[in-house]
Design brief:
heterodimer, A: 625 residues, alpha/beta, elongated, B: 91 residues, alpha+beta, SH3 type barrels, six-stranded antiparallel sheet, 2 helices
Chain lengths: 625, 91
């Protein structure tokens, strides 16, 4: 007796990548779905509930796309283990829906044949039947069902009523579930795969009539979009628009959020509360949460573009165009978009690495993403450059300040490419050269509803999961900067008496070879919350009052207290230093554990220290110490 | 039998090439990033089996790599290095 049948039966959706499985999942479950991570791995677990017309409640599981149960990536391992009921703490599915794109059935049929061996009832859902019909593809459902010895239904995920046939079939099958048969699936060898594919080809010839020509729209579009030169130019243009949008469109919303939190902070500041409670609410809680939520508009816009391009079918083409260029640094073609996103902020960039299937390629990308110069470094760079780099022209036409800024960006990019190159060669030599093989799906018109649900899921996941970890880090940093409190009648700023100041003094012997004084060390601690916070912290330490001209005044104070060598060393430090608790928290979440977060923290700290040391010592030797 | 002189690896074909897969020969793809048995299985899973029609549709800017290949009704992108294992007969 299968107990899980008495509860809500579990139904798993399995299919090739790009078969419209997620659209079908969205159509079946509507908003009743949740996205989580499988414990310990980076794979998304999507499940939802639905009620059939027969009044049956079903737990629906959307598994990562795969060509075979023979797992090659962590995503595919999850699919295999979930289907075979081997996942710890998960109930095996009572029924499997094998989803196939009706216009591209060849590989789906082989997967369906393989799924017959797992000992669970299987139903084949031919998705996107409308598109197939329009293209003149005729599928004989009865013949297909007879040849495969499987129930076959058609579905159109994006149309009202398009899932009726599938739901009716679910009711029929679940009313009378056979006892679970023993799985006789084992990883097929090349011979078995060949046999299965030729059987699939035979079934395809018997039951499906294909027009002789491929999709005309896709052929025409690819003639331009995959053109070696024009294709690359168009890709760059798309990216330009995308990042323009991330910076420009997000700005009003970010300013609004920022103003909202400032107002909230000021409101709390006006309440008759004890100083400590007020400081905790204002500087710890509100400023901490605010500094994270302010990135939400950028994340929403970025994911809107990424999901749009993915649904269109363009993302695989972008990877195709960039593969050779990225490959030179040991990165996968698909790492391109996440790394570029990291120029805005490493957090959405790291979240966007989910498009990379191979676990090692994805880890490499996550590890180097924080080296891309994010927008939070800009205030720090601007402050130091304007205070220390003279505003003059070199070679007659290039501004020196702009040149230094460009140099800092270039150093970040060079650093990221070098680290990924070294990592591939050093740590993962055994699997160096993971092949680039992926399907270029026919272009599809994205569905607004599916797109909106995808963006919504990413936004809420960011707020919920990253928010909790980031918030706790913010509170920790506030505690360090606030305790112990300044004694009665103290003349120095309060932060100078705190644990942060003690740490600043304590680590001075370590940082003095970099030219850092204890004040810099202190500023770097709240700067862990977010890089740009260090600017304000330096202001506090050198007792500069806030206000519109604050940055300029801080600059003057720094120019009076620091040598040029110190300033340059701090710039070098900022290129590499892991100065962002939020990024580290997201790395922890995306990699499913602490290990890679500490690896990132460690290697970035080492690079930052080495870079700052070299810069300061060279500057000192040249007389600028 | 197949005329050996017309045999060609898909990895050395030009854009516009049309043919049919006559064999998968892993020994021709020695530079591939995978062990032979794994590479063979991956190629089959993406539809590269004997008898399937192929057409080389596109190639990248640098060194003509990677390539986009139409296999039956599906388009697959892969590098020439791995495509060396796919032996084709022009048609």
């Amino acid at each position: 007796m299968n107990v899980s049948v008495e509860l809500a039966p579990t139904v798993a959706l399995v299919g090739n990548p790009n078969c419209g499985k997620t659209a079908l999942f969205n159509a079946l479950t509507g908003s009743r779905q949740k996205v989580a991570n499988y414990p310990g791995v980076t794979v998304e677990k999507k499940q939802g509930r639905l009620t059939t017309p027969g009044g049956r409640s079903i737990q629906l599981l959307d598994l990562p796309g795969t060509y075979s149960l023979r797992a090659r990536s962590p995503d595919e391992e999850i699919t295999r283990d979930a289907v075979l009921g081997k996942l710890a703490g998960e109930t095996p599915p009572d029924l499997i829906i094998c989803v196939g794109d009706a216009s591209n059935l060849r590989l789906a049929l082989r997967l369906a044949l393989e799924l017959k061996h797992v000992g669970r009832p299987v139903v084949l859902a031919l998705n996107m039947m409308d598109i197939a019909k329009k293209r003149g593809i005729e599928v004989d459902l009865a013949k297909l069902a007879a040849e495969l010895a499987l129930p076959v239904v058609s579905s159109v995920a994006v149309r009202r009523g398009g899932t009726d046939a599938l739901l009716a079939e679910l009711d029929r099958l679940l009313a009378n579930l056979p006892p679970v048969a023993a799985a006789d699936w084992k990883a097929p060898d090349a011979g078995a795969l060949r046999g299965a594919q030729s059987e699939a080809d035979r079934v395809l010839r018997a039951a499906v009539k294909m027009p002789g020509i491929p999709d005309v729209g896709t052929t025409r579009a690819d003639a331009i979009l995959l053109h070696p030169v024009a294709g690359l130019a168009i890709l760059l243009a798309i990216l330009f628009v995308m990042f323009q949008a991330v910076f420009a469109w997000a700005k009003p919303a970010m300013e609004l959020i920022s103003a909202g939190f400032t107002w909230l902070g000021a409101f709390v500041g006006s309440l008759p509360l004890p100083d400590l409670v007020q400081s905790f609410l204002k500087d710890g809680l509100i400023a901490g949460v605010g500094s994270v939520i302010v990135f939400l508009p950028q994340i929403v816009i970025l994911f809107f573009f990424i999901l749009l391009l993915e649904d269109l079918g363009y993302m695989a083409r972008a990877a195709f165009l960039m593969d050779k260029i990225m490959g030179g640094a040991g990165l996968h073609g698909r790492a391109f978009i996440p790394l570029l996103s990291s120029f805005a902020c490493a957090i959405p960039g790291i979240m966007a690495t989910r498009v990379i299937d191979d676990r090692r390629d994805r880890l490499t990308t996550i590890l180097v993403a924080p080296l891309m110069t994010c927008s939070a470094r800009i205030p720090v760079y601007t402050l130091i450059i304007s205070a220390f780099i003279p505003e003059r022209e070199v070679w007659g036409f290039v501004g020196l300040q702009g040149l230094v800024m460009f140099g800092l960006y270039a150093a970040g990019i060079t650093g990221a490419l070098t680290v990924s190159f070294v990592m591939k060669r050093l740590f993962w030599r055994s699997t160096a050269g993971e092949p680039f093989m992926l399907e270029l799906p026919d272009y599809k018109i994205p569905q607004a509803k599916s797109l909106a649900m995808g963006v919504w899921a990413r936004a809420t996941a960011f707020l919920k999961r990253a928010g909790t970890t980031i918030l706790s880090m913010m509170i920790l940093i506030w505690v360090l900067a606030s305790f112990p409190q300044a004694p009665e009648g103290a003349t120095d700023p309060a932060i100078n008496y705190s644990l942060a100041a003690m740490i600043g003094h304590f680590i001075e012997p370590v940082t003095s070879p970099l030219g850092f004084n204890w004040q810099i060390n202190v500023a770097l601690i709240p700067g862990m919350a977010a890089r740009e916070v260090a600017v304000g912290a330096l202001g506090t330490i050198y007792a500069v009052n806030g206000g519109a001209e604050a940055t300029q005044q801080i600059g003057q104070a720094l120019a009076a207290h620091w040598s040029l060598g110190t300033a340059l060393a701090l710039l070098a430090w900022y290129i590499f230093a892991p100065q962002c608790a939020s990024t580290l928290a997201v790395i922890r979440r995306e990699t499913g554990g602490w290990k890679w977060m500490w690896v990132t923290f460690g290697y970035m700290l080492a690079l930052a220290y080495a870079a700052a040391l070299i810069v300061y010592q060279v500057a000192a030797a040249l007389g600028a110490g | 039998m197949v005329d050996l002189s017309t045999l060609l690896a898909l990895g050395e074909a030009r854009v516009g090439f049309r043919g049919r897969i006559s064999a998968l020969d892993m020994s021709r793809a020695e530079g591939a990033g995978l062990p032979a048995s794994e590479l063979e299985r991956r190629l089959i899973e993406l539809g590269f089996v004997e008898g399937a029609d192929v057409e080389l549709l596109h190639q990248g800017l640098f060194g003509g790599d990677p390539i986009a290949v139409r296999v039956a009704a599906t388009t697959i992108a892969l590098r020439r290095r791995e495509a060396m294992a796919i032996v084709v007969t022009p048609r």
